[in-house]
């Protein structure tokens, strides 16, 4: 089964994974895969999600495998709740070594600029950008105090390519800039910040969401998306995102900060 590595690469680390639940579906989502893999590699994990049941399910899966995990519910668009989740992490885990910002939404009135609905733009920017800003700001207090920390932001290949979801694309481009700015301003405090830019992934939010919106079957969506990927003609999975996050969060990447890492099967290399 993918994601079964147990090398202890995060042994002794305390990690917060925001967006650790997932949309229901037959595959695994990025946040859940990251939380599971981090726990398998020795991290104590706080699984954060807006929907309590989803966070609790991921935490329970980790505990079933013998890991330490706790669930916490938060609306990251509210500063008080992001401060509460950091306080929960410090209370439950005793530290905050790693933060993964994995929350993101799309659709619902988004589109090319001539079709974009104002409400969709506002909603997307608040969740995808403001939420990440608020969580990062709250997490930096204990990280700076400790003189160490690794932040991994989940951006998207859409941040540098595309033209059909302008609000989503803009929000993720802003996440890239947030990542680099945070890396620059926090380096002297021992805090690293990097981002992953996933391409087409076979996750419930993507495949099921698109199938529902377009009135197609999930297999039709998978076939069309697979055909667009240069490497092997197949989408990536959440485990591909998780392993990239594991590297960036680990001490193996202790001299890496401000990086925007594509995990996209070569899609970002295409021009024209």
Salient structural properties:
single chain; 272 residues; alpha/beta; 7-stranded parallel sheet; 7 strands; 44% helix
Mean pLDDT: 95
Describe the global form.
globular
What structural class results from the helix and strand content? alpha/beta
Fraction of residues in β-strands? 5-15%
Give the low-pLDDT segments.
none
Helix content class = 40-55%
Order of helices and strands: EHEHEHEHEHEHHHE
Radius of gyration, CA atoms, in whole angstroms? 17 Å
Instruction: Give the count of helical stretches.
Output: 8
How far is it from the N-terminal to the C-terminal residue, by CA? 37 Å
Strand order of the largest sheet: 3-2-1-4-5-6-7
Number of E-type strands: 7
Which sheet architecture does the biggest sheet show?
7 strands, parallel
Architecture blueprint of SSEs:
Layout: E1 14-18, H1 30-40, E2 44-49, H2 52-64, E3 69-73, H3 79-93, E4 98-101, H4 118-146, E5 149-154, H5 166-186, E6 191-198, H6 204-214, H7 218-226, H8 238-249, E7 260-263
Parallel strand pairs: 1-2, 1-4, 2-3, 4-5, 5-6, 6-7
